[in-house]
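Field: sequence (string)
Field: structure_tokens (string)

Example rows 1 and 2, in order.
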Amino acid sequence: MFNLDLLIRENVKKLVPYSSARDEFKGEAKIFLDANENSLGSVLTNCLPAGQAGYNRYPDPHQTKLKEKLSGVKGIPAPNIFLGNGSDECIDILQRAFCEPRIDNIIICPPTYGMYEVCANINNVNVKKIKLGQDFQLNVEGIDHAIDDHTKMIFLCSPNNPTGNSLVHEDIEAILNNYFGLVVIDEAYINFSRQRSFSTWLNEYPNLVVMQTLSKAWGLAALRVGITMASEEIIAIMNKIKPPFNINEASQELALLALEEVEQVNEMIKEIVKERENLEQALVNLSFVEKIYPSDANFLLVKMNDPVDIYKKLLKKGIVVRDRSRVELCEGCLRITVGSPDENKALLYELAAIH
């Protein structure tokens, strides 16, 4: 049976979180003399449109307006949402909250997103690796055997990076039903997939944590806004240990504007998926392309003859793709992000010249 209290680190249970100046009053105010800000404004004040904040004030530490807006877009109550400085901060905070260094472990399923392991190494948390099996799907039996009393969380990426495929829902459901640590599902690429988000399962599984982002489909990678959805109890623990002002004011303001443009995002998603299909059809005709793996993301994993040479030749032409040929189970592969129509034409032109 799932018991969150057994998962939390003892020092985190006892932790008294930092209380910022903006945490210590309620209601509205006109004059702020509590946080030692520059009350005259900022060096940007004269550079910004009239009426726009000069950024001399600290941002809302709770991102209240942004969470309320996200709640409407995602269909998830605001108290069930945590915002991080990119998903990487969400990954790091989860591990710091629940994993005792040198004692506890996490399970990852390579090939997958590298920051799960990097954060574990930084936090001195043990990592158990259960490789993906056929068609880059989960080895559920292997995961089950790897779980021990110190396994605090399992990281699953769906659609998976760098392979592009979605994980089988029934496999993840089996893990959720039989494991009583946290199951963290990274859905950075969910908008490009036909699969439903696991966020719809949050009420059924108290040990489920779902991560999404504004970096991919929303096109806001520079803002660094990562989204974690989970039970109120898990979110409260994450809020307890996060830096007080982890999402800056500019990111909050711009993200709020972007969330008004749902229709535009949907149109961009359709165009990217169409370009992904066109790119796949063109790549398959190249003699050095051995295989293109099915993708539910905004990239393709492409197996090629001599991928390193092709990578270097593209680089000389000013085109950067990702060399994944040294990643286990991705041998011989380049990962190619779906570009704009013009970028894809340029890529195909250079590949045709190599061909």
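Row 2 begins here:
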Amino acid sequence: MILAGSQIHVPARWALLAPALLLGPLVVVLDRLGAADDLTLFVLAAVALLPLAWLIGEATENLAFYTGPAVGGFLNATFGNAPELIIAIVAVSEGLTEIVRASLVGSIAGNLLLVLGFTLLLGRKGKIDRRSTYISLGVVGFATVVFLIAAARGFHGDPDRNPLAEYALPLAVLLLVVRVPVTRHELRRQRQIFTPVELMAGSWPLRTSLAVLGIATVVTAFVTEALVGSLRVFADRANLSEFFVAIVIVAIVGNATEHGSAVLLARRGRVKLAVEIPLASSAQIAGLLIPLVAVISWAFEPLTLSFRPVELAAMAIAAALPALVLRSGGTTRAGGAVLLVAYAALVVVFYLAGER
């Protein structure tokens, strides 16, 4: 089997995965037609994300041959976070501000503790780009300080009152102003230090890698939307608070493709690229996605940045702990275990925190 417009011979595993990849479009159709109950849709959507995670991982790995690990991780994060941006804007327009804030914080904590933890624990040992790592973690740390300033006034009273949204708007713009030059500088540095490598047999052309990554991301966005839409029924059946569902379950599900692709690449020995994926994704969420949603929300329902103290603490821990674990410039399985234990402890805290 050969992809159109290229001379790539697709491995036999494509024939085995083709039916699984068709599950994503099937879930979208079932969701749009209302042809399945919420629990069935939840299970099907969760399963459909697994082959999509593999496909995004394949596309990212091939893309990194042309761009380098850091740029490849950045592109993976950009495509991977696109569904979250869409879902967050839709949720804000429906007045689900608490769920939006919790799910975005959960994505940051999940990426830096859960995904990175599994990547270090299950992947091969290897070196990382320390400068790129600390730039990403620095962005998350800086954003946490800005969010603390924005949230302090909302610790008491209605966290969604309009004066808090007006107070948060310039802080959101500040984050965007800082994030853009930092990203431009880092991408320029990566282009300068990147040394082209010899393509492996069966590698995809650049255009094919980008096309597959884009298509898989679009399908993932619709599948994730269907899954998130059925989560309230799941939360009711499981007797869980909406806060816990948003900050843990929605966050894990929303990042399922990044989880799978990072671990897959780490298992293949592409450690530097695998580590860049959760780091770049977290930096994008904290420094770009959250303030962008806050700015866009003024078109319909202004979003305050009134994060709860437990959410701010989670972001601070998620920025500081990986910095300690990766300070040597290399990966260790013990470091991965530490991150996973920390995430498990946060999950318990989130459960006990309940609603506001």
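free_text_note (row 2): The first helix runs from residue 13 to 21.
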